[in-house]
Amino acid sequence: QVQLVESGGGSVQAGGSLRLSCSASEYTYSGYCMGWFRQAPGKGREGVAIIGSDGSPRYADSVKGRFTISQDNAKNTLYLRMNSLKPEDTAMYYCARGSSIYCALDSAYFHYWGQGTQVTVSS
After folding, report:
1. Which of 8, 63, 65, 110 falls 20 to 30 Å from 56 in CA-CA distance?
2. pLDDT in the model for residue 27
């Protein structure tokens, strides 16, 4: 089975930075869209950023200019660099792999998910 494992979450103050990582023991990313999603308590899962199979990124409006998605296929690792964090960024963050070369900032396009890593941003 495809297994994705997130790491790098934690607690930071507003304005701080974190880098999330998503790794797989087997080669997972080549030829697929990859994405980061988040879910706060009582809210639905929200698309944060995706990166296409061609390497092109797309971001939610709420994180544009602050977050950067990238991947290292040789290391089977996906990253999300988060700068200028805000309290509203507080959520469980999930790494996901798309089911085809087509994808969008919508969880419906992603069929494989990690267990999540918690990000908490305080004022």
Report:
1. 8
2. 58
CA end-to-end distance (rounded Å), the chain: 40
CA-closest candidate to residue 110, choices 61, 63, 47: 47
From the list 37, 123, 21, 23, the residue with the least C-alpha distance to 81 is 21
Query: Exposed (0-12), middle (13-18) or buried (19+): which is 31, by Cβ within 10 Å?
Result: exposed
Q: What whole-number distance in Å separates Cα of residue 88 and Cα of residue 31?
A: 32
Question: 33, 97 in Cβ contact below 8 A?
Answer: yes
**Closest Cα partner for 12 from 86, 79, 69?**
86
Tokens of residue 33, six digits: 């869209």
Task: Give the tokens for residue 19.
Answer: 């880098």
55 DSSP assignment: S
Pair 36, 96: CB distance under 8 Å: yes
Cα-based distances in Å from 110 to 13, 74, 76, 86, 102:
31, 22, 17, 26, 10
Contact (CB, 8 A) for 39 and 107? no
How confident is the model over 109-123, as a mean pLDDT?
95
pLDDT at position 40 is: 96
